[in-house]
Amino acid sequence: MKYLLPQCFVFLALLSLQGLQAQTNILSTSPLAEQILLGNYDPNNYLPATVTPSLPAELALELQSNISADSLKAYILRLSEFGTRNSGSDTLSASMGIGAARRWTHQKFVEFGVAREGRFIPSYLQFDLPICGVNQHRNIFAVLPGSNPGSGVVLVEGHIDSRCSVLCDTACLAEGVEDNATGTALVLELARVMSQYQFPNTIVFLVTIAEEQGLLGAEAFADYVQQKNIPLRAVLNNDVIGGILCGETSSPPSCPGLNDVDSTSVRLFSAGSFNSRSKQLARFIKLQYQENLLPTAPVPMELRIMSPEDRTGRGGDHIPFREHGYPAMRFTSANEHGDASNGPGYEDRQHTSDDVLGVDTDGDGAVDSFFVDFNYLARNALINGNALAVAARSVALPPNFTAKRSGAQLTLTFDSPIDTHTIRVGVRSLLNDWDTVFTISPAFSDELSCKPTGPVYVSVAGVDAWGAESLFSVEKIATLSSTEIPGSAKPEANIRLFQNRPNPFDEATWISFWVNELPANAGSALIQIVDLQGKLIQNIPVSLKQGMNEVLYTHGYGVRGTFAYTLVVGGTTVETRQMIFAN
């Protein structure tokens, strides 16, 4: 996308500069909220008046009936009225700037807590760091105490700050409707609806600041969680989550072109591929949608599990949590209005004063054509809430296992007896998502089926008596027979190049290979990408390690055709395979 490289450079430079300073004096302004996060409370003091449905599908139906597009619209309208929510803007005004926006958001959490008879506890997370001329900042969060103190915490978040093209311009109008009043509104609506229930795990509803200045509010909260040893199990970040119109520019992988409309799909970004806890979280979220929501959904949604952690050259608040070791992912609309490059000729809305609610087409002074689809935003809120509810049930994982394969037959062996009601087995080959998710009893003896060739990745989840899954385990690669080693039938073959995943793919794909033992004097290694005419597209240096090696290859959006990739070790070609671009 045009002007993306300069923007990427500015973003990386900013992160580098901020890295010279760290957030200090990080504290929760509510001691009670902190004690709940630490598990130091009596859950009997927080029993709900509303009985939480036991069956996940029943709870999903209640969430669907309670989440309101009108409420989301009202939140976004109010957030747009603060003029700017730049992290360096006014903190004292009662009506304008980030201070007024933070206090209004905190007050909404207070109101929800009053409505739940004190069962929902609001707080600020205060920290010191010079950002755009302001030295002290506050995230806003609230906690819903779980019935099993200390068993774990799950978190949903969105950033409240907005900006124009100049990072610290606090004078420009920056209503930031799509980026990111939509994410803040989603968190508020889930807080309103889900605070009537109780779950085994505590749920945190977090609204961060200073995302636009380098993910600094999220960094502060991730530091706080780590310093306090809070057992954070999953992070769902929502950023640019309500718009449905494609801009002239859009950071790939994204939308087809100007004014394309998509109100029925959403992108799930997360880091890694094989054995990534964050990618496993994205798969878990999609599975919960397919099984609990899709059967009764008035408008079916497509959840697209993306290969990269974020859009090309961009970042979001899930990244600091992942960097601190917590599973974290990002929801983003299928279509974005701009790549935030803000260079000459940039006419899209993102990171400009035009990121507003909509336009007045009939001249009556009221917006009647909206850039945000509130029903689409409500559906995305429901997807979040459904996944949070199941994750917060805190179902135990099955014991450690090994996976072996012979042809299309897959056999699992567990280290100890399984004590959950049933278990789920996720089997994956060439996609970012599972090929199949099996449901089996603890005493199962049948062999499972899988793809007969190429690598097979296996993970498991526990299931409780009401049908709710745990988060899935780390992935393990099923043992391959010697005849399935690419390019060789010899069992001593040392390096195996696998088919890229996903394939075909849109904008990025994972290329992986397995090293049994590090070769002596291997020297340099690289993945070489060429087109079918033999033209070199890219050489990607690789640092060899024993076990699974993975490289994310990003080509860019709008490419079609077949390419070849070759693994070269020490100047010697190991194997060549083909991959297909299909966007």
Descriptive terms for the model:
alpha+beta, Aminopeptidase, Immunoglobulin-like, 3 domains, four-stranded antiparallel beta sheet, 10 helices, globular
What does the model show?
The strands form 6 sheets. This protein has a 9-stranded mixed sheet, sandwiched between helices. A 4-stranded antiparallel sheet has the order 15-14-17-18, with no helix packed on it. The longest helix is centred in the N-terminal third of the chain and has 19 residues, at 97-115. Strand 2 (121-131) and strand 3 form a beta hairpin. Helix 3 (56-66) runs antiparallel to helix 10 (374-391), helix 4 (69-80) packs across helix 6 (177-194) and helix 6 crosses helix 10 (374-391). Helices cover 23% and strands 27% of the residues. The chain is an alpha+beta fold and 583 residues long. The chain has helices at 4-18, 31-37, 56-66, 69-80, 97-115, 177-194, 216-227, 277-293, 318-323, 374-391, and strands at 24-28, 121-131, 134-144, 153-159, 202-208, 232-238, 265-270, 302-305, 328-333, 358-359, 369-370, 401-406, 409-414, 422-428, 436-440, 448-449, 457-463, 476-477, 495-497, 508-515, 525-531, 536-542, 547-554, 560-569, 572-582.
CATH topology tier name of the largest domain:
Aminopeptidase
Give the radius of gyration: 24 Å
Largest sheet: 9 strands, mixed
Tally of individual helices: 10
Portion in beta strands: 25-35%
- The total tally of domains equals 3
Contiguous low-pLDDT stretches (5 residues minimum) are 1-20, 482-492
- By helix and strand content, what is the structural category? alpha+beta
